[in-house]
Amino acid sequence: MGMEKRSTRLKIVLDLAVRKEEAALKQLQRAQQLLHQEREKERQLQQYMQDYQTQLQQQQQGNLHIQSYLNLQNFMAQLGQAMTQQQNQITQAEKQVAACLASWRQLHEKKKGMQEHIEKCRQQEQVEQDKQEQKLIDEFSQRRNRF
């Protein structure tokens, strides 16, 4: 055959789909890692808040200077704001993970569909090749029977 088989030509498209899927998977992994880091920052902020609350309770039991008390209260308020901001960061990171996951799934399904299409092409090419071979065998048989 002078022309390349369709399944062979489609392999280029499949290779591109595979590369796109792999890139989407890497992006998903990066987004998941970022989400993990943001959650770890939140955990640390929660730990700081807990530590300072414990420190405040201990100092309230003793003689706490009013300025120290106000400074501690002010710092805890700032920590609370930082925790709110961190929760917003986590929400954004979760949205990014969801978007990356949706993108990867779409590209994965596209690749899978291309693989199935190529397999159907290969099967059809095999059927056509089998028919061609049978035709040649039949022609050879007919010629042989004439002589």
Automatic annotation (TrEMBL):
Keyword Protein transport: yes
Membrane topology designation: Peripheral membrane protein
Principal localisation: membrane
Gene Ontology MF terms in the entry: cytoskeletal motor activity
UniProt-listed GO biological process terms: bacterial-type flagellum organization; bacterial-type flagellum-dependent cell motility; chemotaxis; protein transport
The name this protein goes by in its record: Flagellar FliJ protein
Keywords attached to this entry: Bacterial flagellum biogenesis, Bacterial flagellum protein export, Cell membrane, Cell projection, Chemotaxis, Cilium, Flagellum, Membrane, Protein transport, Transport
InterPro entries in the record: Flag_assembly_chemotaxis_eff, Flag_FliJ_proteobac, Flagell_FliJ, FliJ
Highest taxon, organism lineage: Bacteria
Entry similarity comment: Belongs to the FliJ family.
Region described as Disordered: spans on this chain: 123-147
Pfam families named in the record: FliJ
GO cellular component: bacterial-type flagellum; plasma membrane
The keyword Endoplasmic reticulum appears for this protein: no
Localization: Cell membrane
